[in-house]
Amino acid sequence: MNYASPTYVEETRIGFHFLRSHTWQHHVLRVAINDLKRLIGEPLPQGGTLLDTGCGQGKSFRLLRDAFQPVRMLGLDADPHSLSLSEAEAAREGIRVELLTADCAEIPLPDSSVDIVFCHQTFHHLVEQERALAEFWRVLKPGGWLLFAESTKAYIDTWVIRWFFRHPMHVQKSADEYLNMLRGQGFAFGPRNVSFPYLWWSRSKDFGLLERWGLRAPPPPGQREETLVNAAVRKPAHD
């Protein structure tokens, strides 16, 4: 397979099939998009151009269309096979999407051409994270939104995830490190634009079973190592 990124880390067969599952679409994607909508606040941005970076097999397209009603939707991925499945998914849903076989570190779009960049569970797959974030900044219009939802090192660096999935382990970061990257690039956001979901699937040591059985309460924020971070951040608008 010829990937569009020279640093692409190929997913396992199990991982590839998981990304088309009901669990992925309804317990991961849908939950993240609903949370990101809450972090943006009202009114939600509508219309314009939306870029889904690392769109995978296209399971996000309908959810993003319904939430933001973009005039133009683009899906970008480095894996041509995933994009062929994205094309089929868009056809099934009756959604018009322009698909780009490209690297997040080198996005083939003009400066200031996108209103929303959606980056869901993509960043921890990227080796050239700083370059990718700079590209998100470049293609966003002033005032545009980056919707960022990520798993942290505390989740990725567990035996279950290491066993079944494949990631570039040397670039994995904590929630605070991801937020510092966003700030360092220049994105503007406050506490109300950030959340730390503590979802059952993100706790691969026990998948929250002890809490579901009533044997213990989940540790509160500040007393746990965060496994997920969601942030709705904005490229400042300039006069």
Automatic annotation (TrEMBL):
Gene3D superfamilies assigned: Vaccinia Virus protein VP39
A Pfam entry, by short name: Methyltransf_11
Keyword Acetylation set for record: no
Gene Ontology MF terms: methyltransferase activity
InterPro entries in the cross-refs: Methyltransf_11, SAM-dependent_MTases_sf, UbiE/COQ5_MeTrFase_CS
Example GO BP: methylation
Claim: Transferase is one of the keywords in the record: yes
Protein name listed in UniProt: Class I SAM-dependent methyltransferase
Organism of provenance: Dyella flava
